[in-house]
Structures are given as structure tokens and as C-alpha cells.
Target: DNA gyrase subunit A
Amino acid sequence: MSDQIPQRPAFDITPVTIEDEMKRSYLDYAMSVIVARALPDVRDGLKPVHRRILYVMKEGGFDWNRPYRKSARIVGDVMGKYHPHGDSAIYDAMVRMAQPWSMRQLLVDGQGNFGSVDGDRPAAMRYTEAKLQRVASEALLEDMDKETVDFAPNYDESTSEPTVLPARFPNLLVNGAGGIAVGMATNIPPHNLGEVIDGCFAYIDDPDISVDRLMEFIPGPDFPTGGIILGRAGIRDAFHTGRGSVVTRGKAEIELRDRDRESIVITEIPYQVNKARMIEQIAQAVRAGTIEGVAELRDESDRHGMRVVVDLKRDAMGDVVLNQLYRFTQLQTSFGVNMLALNGGRPELMGLKDIVAAFVAFREEVITRRTMYELRKARERAHIQLGLAVAVANIDPVIALIRAAADPETARQELMARDWPAAQVGPLIALVDEPGRAVSDEGTYRLSEIQAKAILELRLQKLTGLEREKIAEELQGLIEQIKEYLAILESREKLLEVLRAELQDIKDRYADPRRTEIDEHAFDQDDESLIQRAEMVVTITHGGYIKRVPLSTYRAQRRGGKGRSGMATRDDDFVAQVQVCSTHSPLLFFTSRGMAYKMKVWRLPVGTPQARGKALVNLLPLEKGEAVTTCLALPEDETLWDEMSVLFATSTGTIRRNKLSDFSNIRSNGKIAMKLDEEGGGYLVSVKLCEDNEDVLLATAKGKAIRFHVTDLRVFTGRSSTGVRGIKLGKDDEVISMSILASNAIEMEERTAYLRYAAAKRRADGIEDDSDTPSVDEVSVELDADRMAELEQAEQFVLSVAADGFGKRTSAYEYRVTKRGGQGIGNLDLSRGKKQTTVVAAFPVEPDDQLMLVTDGGKLIRMPVEGIRIAGRTTRGVTLFRIGEDERVVSVARLGESGEEEDEDETEDGPSLEERSSESEELAPEIDVDEPEQGD
Model:
């Protein structure tokens, strides 16, 4: 044996970094997904899997006029010959092309269970059957055997498949597409076939047509499930740029179920919405209280159509509940348009005009290639017919030559070698105009090999006179076809006429009316227009809970009553703020962190008087430890905001003035409203709207008040300032309220005289019984009657309420105007009470107003202002609210004019006195106090 060591085989080893290899492999994979799987081709609007399914069905003869075939057979052929992926992916793609709620123009005719709009899965492929729809066979696959499109080898190169189908209509727009590739995605909505073809006509007539002009023919998507598109802004963005968001909502009607009950009937839903899941979502929203007023929900859909019924409660408004369905469920959705498709093998974001232009250019190419193919075939057939015509014209010599020939090959050679007289066939030969095969000068014509073979295969029946005429007629028809084909190839106008005629034929046979309605005004209409306008009591607790209760829930009572239960509060929580405003009013919330948030009243949760409400942290993006300190109701008309100012007052006595328009645009994450003095421990007390001709009244907890002109405050341009001093506070004192009063020019003597006159007049009218008050006759001699009438007309009254339930009305004339920054004057005498108390509210009221007083125990009482005694600025007042030993009044709200008188013992909104007598002490009958009750 030889000691020679065997040599190792040489390998070509190239070092590659892992980064480069991963980058190259990933890019290869990404391009494979983009080009060969996920994105549709702009020409036929199909992805490879859909194209292969349709081609296999056409190839297998599963046409629209043939019997159905098992779906498993189709899937197997597709997977085995063209699509080397999972059978479930192929079957799901085929199923979608047979679902009328998925495709605007069905391409597959399915028989069996192909799923439902409720999201039910289709039956297994071994149970279902399918065949091509007629539109797919005649409009997508027609002319594929005429060399109109390119073919490429399949995955194992055992056969070939078309790279694109010769589509006769813009399938990408008509049926839309959706797919997720690597780093990109497409989502194209379906459109109406007739409208898309009209758009193609418009582009053919004017290739420079604008997108807006094109939208007159293609107004927007047309979903197979119908529905309503809100507005045209999203459509316009999508058609111009290729991207946009189209807001769609289902079609619903409000029907009268009983005499006083309504039902919402949903007959159409947005595209790609699962009906069963939508119904479940509605039920969950009803259980959670997000949607109110629903009594019953049921699905009455059948094979005749969709019908989802939402029965409403007796007192529910159909428009309001329908608006809630649109807002909180999938009855209204957004379709994100992203018109990304393969154009020339490259992914491209395309607008409406780009897609139409690409399709028209593709059809021009298809028609050109088809015409060239048909021209070649016509010439080949005409060539054979010319040979037969020559043979028939020279039938006797031809027969003699064939009889004399030893074999067919010799006969063929002799037929080709002889010059045959063209005779009457000469003009036909000239019309065919074959290169190099014209009639000679001697009037003879030589047969080609193909013609000689055709003559040898000629049957004897072709020699009859009738058959000879048929040959001539066919040859003449072929010549006309050749002329037509040449005209199409030589003239683009002629080619476009053919294109228009084919599009018109598709439109006439397959187009149907639009299903999706486009409402230009619905999206511009704010949803709150469907909200019933009503007065609401908005209640905010110290612990941060909010709710709104209809104002009609609370009955008017006389002062001194015990009130009724207003909220079920915890031991450590109490009602802190009350606002009375319309459901359409915007509310500004100001927090302890100096932030401002805006929200409409109708967005707040509705509750009963005893309900606690919903935590503000679930409605506003409050940080940990941040609380709402004050709330301001704004005018509904935002055009008034530029003319008004807003005042901020803090507990430390500072005040700031801004333009209200500074807070017109507040995002959902809020806006900085005021920079607070964190070291001083101050908080925002009140925010008020004001004008230049008004005064500011600041009241403190220890009974002080100061009044000065609004114009004493300059308008701040920033929102982060702490402001300037409004009142100089005493030890342990703080500002508890800020009010806006009408300015008036009145001298000291005149004010004193008028106050004496007003007190005397109230005594004469029986409103007050004070022996210290002079009579009208005693003071009238000091006054000018016209001037007193003018002062009386302009008089305002300030209501002051203490925490122990005492309060009074005082003429605003008693609060003289001073410069801001002073210590103020006395407002309410706190020294005569049985227990130490503080002032909790001071604001102007009108005689027709009503008040709502709230205690920290959760009790509320509503009373008219006219029953509260008018007293001097430094007096204590009378009992307004009889509260418990451990209770205190924490909030007082002015409700505005009462509107109508309510019976004290029995009203529509509350039980009678007899019915209420059995209630608990919390809901005890009201106690009337006719005589004023003086403080000690």
C-alpha cells in the first residue's frame, strides 16, 4: 500500500460578516414578500395567489357555464402547480373572492358554506364547490390565449403561468385590495364598476384631467356592505395622495315601536365590520353605561337582508342613542386608505389618476398584442385560403399533377415548383399583401410549402361550386379583418375606440347601482347636534367624582327646609362644586397643577341624585395627586370669546386677567392655565368671564370683601404668570370667591340716601319689619325721584352664605369701589354665631333666581332667592339651610331664573307629602319657615 496521504477536495470558501449576510437575506425575503405575495399588481388588481386560483379554474375548465367542482380540487391544483404554500392560505383567498360582503364584484361562484358576515368560518374545502363567475371569465381571463400577457416558469419550471391577467376593467379599484408586506402595507377600498369605467372614459378623452375633475365620475369608494361615507375630505386626500381616512357608518333608521317607544333598526354596517362582534360591543357598552336608554338588542337578519334591532326605553331619544352607537361602537368606523400597488414590478403609492392611467396604458398594450396576434393568425389563414383559391381556379392541372405524382412528397414539390396562373385570384393576393409573395409580371403565382400541403389535404367536397364560393367569401372576410387589424395598429385613436367599446360592453353587462351613500354634510355636522338640549346640574366632589343630573330632578323648596339626598358620598368625600348649564355648554376644568381642560357637558356621565358619579381621572388625563379645583361654563358661541376676558383668582389673593380666546384651542392633554405659587400653598379659587365695564368682588373666608374695576387689571399675554395682588389678606385668611358686578357711578351721599330709601320701601311693602328703618315719607324728601328709580333699576344684590347655613342678601351699593390690593371691608358678621364659622360663598343674585346649597354630608336643598332676607353688609342674616351638628355648607350654586312655580308639597318630579312621610330622615319632608330667623 502506498503511504501517500489522500488530498482533501478544494472548497470555495468566502468569508462573510454576519451583518452583511443577515442584511442580504432579509432584503431578499422582503422583496419576495412584496413582489410575489402581499401586494397587488396595478394592472389586474390581483395578488399572485388570486391570479393563480383564477388561472387554474380557467385552465381546468371550471367556467361559469360549467358544473361546480370541489374546492379541494382547485386548491390542490393551485398548490401543486403554481403556489407552493399552505392549502389554508389558498382556500381562504378563494373563499374571499366568493363572499358578497367582501368583494364588490364577485370573481368566484361558490356553492356551500363560504362563511358569513358574522365572522363564521367557511366549511372545509372538501365540502364546498366553486367555479368562475362570468365576469371573471369574460373580463379578467379573456384573450389570455392570444399572447396578450407574458408567461413565466412556475416554481419548479415544469410549466408556465401568466405574470398578469389581461383584465378588461380596473379590478384594483373595483374590488380593492389589502395586504401587509415587509415594511409596507396596502389597503385599497372597492369602488363602483360603472363609475370607474366612466372615469376611464374621462381620462381617455383628456389625459391631462385633474383629480378633482376625475372625482366627478368616481365620487368615492362603493363598499359591498353599503353604509354611508361621511364627508369628502378623506376621499379627496386618498385620491390625491394615495393616503387618507374615510369615515363610514352603517345605515340605521328610527322606527316607532309603540306609541311612545322607539327602535333603531340597522340595515347596513360599515365595510369589514363583523356584525356579531358589533352586536356584542353594543351589549357591552350598554352594560357599562356608556350607551344609555337601550331596553333590548336582537339580531333579526335572515337570507332576505340584514336587520339588527335596538329597542329603546320609554324615555330614551332615538337620535341620542343612535349618536352614542356611532361614537362608541363599530357602527361608525374609519377606513384607512393606503393605495400601494406594484407598478412595473416596483411598489408605488398611487393616486386615483395614477391607477386609471396605469390601467389604460396596460389595456392599450393588451389590445396591441392581441391585435398583432390576430393579424398574424389572419394572415396565416389567408395564406392558406389563397393557395386553395389558386388550386380551385386551376383545378384540372392540379388534379392531373397529383395523379401523375409517385408519392405525396413528389406532388408537394411539383406543386411548389410550378408557376400557376393567378387568374381571378390575383386581386385577392394583392389585398393580402404578403411580403415576397406577390403575383409575377406574367400573372403567375407560386405556392408555398404550407399552401401545397393544404392543397394535398383538400377534400373533394371543397371542389363543388358552393364550397368554392365559401373559400372566396372567407378569404374576403380575412382580408377585411387584416385591414381592420392594421388600422388599429397604425392609429392610436382607432385603438382607443376599441378600448372604449370593450369597457362600455363590460359596463353594460356587469355594472350595478352604487350601494354606499356619500353624505357631504353629515361629517361636518357635530355629533352634539343629536344631543337633546337640556339644563343639567354638574356636581363635582372633593374626592374628584363628577356627574350630571337633569335640573328638573330637584324641586324648589322654601328656605329652612331639610333638603333631599343629593349624592351618596363616602365619609372622606363631599360635594365641592356645582355648575348649572346646558348639555351643549363647554366646560373648562382648572386643576391644582394650573392646567386647563375642556369638555362638553353631554360627554359627562349621567347619574341620579343619589349616584356618586365617575372619577375625573377616567375623563381627564390627570396626574397622580392632581385634582380639579374649579370649573367654568363657557358660552356656546365661540365668536364671543374674542370680546371677553377671563379672570383667575387664587386663595392667596392674587388675580390675573387674560383673553378668553387664549383658551379656545385646548387639546386632549390640556393646556397650562396659570402658574401657581407653590411655596405659598395657594390654589385656584375661581375663574370668571368679564368685560371692561364691570367690577370684581373678592370675598374672604373671614368675612372681608373688596371691590375694584376690571380695568384696574391689565390683560396678561402669557398664561404662566401668577398675576398681581387683588386683596391683602389677614392672618389665616384666604379668598373663597370671586364675583363680577356691573359698574356704577354713585357718590357716597347718594348711596347712603338710596340705601335708606330702599330699606324704607321694603318696610312699606311688608318685606321687612325693622323698627329702626325710617318711613318712605321721612326719606323721600331727601331724594330725586327719577334718580332713585334709575338706581333701583340698576341695583344688584350679593348673596353671602356661611358654613353654618346662615346667609343674607346685600345691596351691591354697600360695597364701595376701591383700588385693588387693599384689605377690604366687612362682608358678613361671623362673631354672633353659636359656633365658629366661615364664609363659603358670596356672589350676585337676581330675585327670580333659585339657589342650590350643598353640605359635606351630601345633602342638597333648592330654594328661591326671593325668600332670603335683604340685610346690611355687616349683619349675619337668617337660616337658609338647617344642617346637622357635624355638617357644614361647602358649596352654593346659582340656578338662574326658576321658570315656573312649583308646588311645595307635590310636583311632577317628586313624591307627594303623604308619600314622602314614610321616607328616611335623609329624604324627610321639607320644613317651611315663614318668619326670618335672626342670628344670636
Observations:
- Residues 898-936 have pLDDT under 50 and may be disordered.
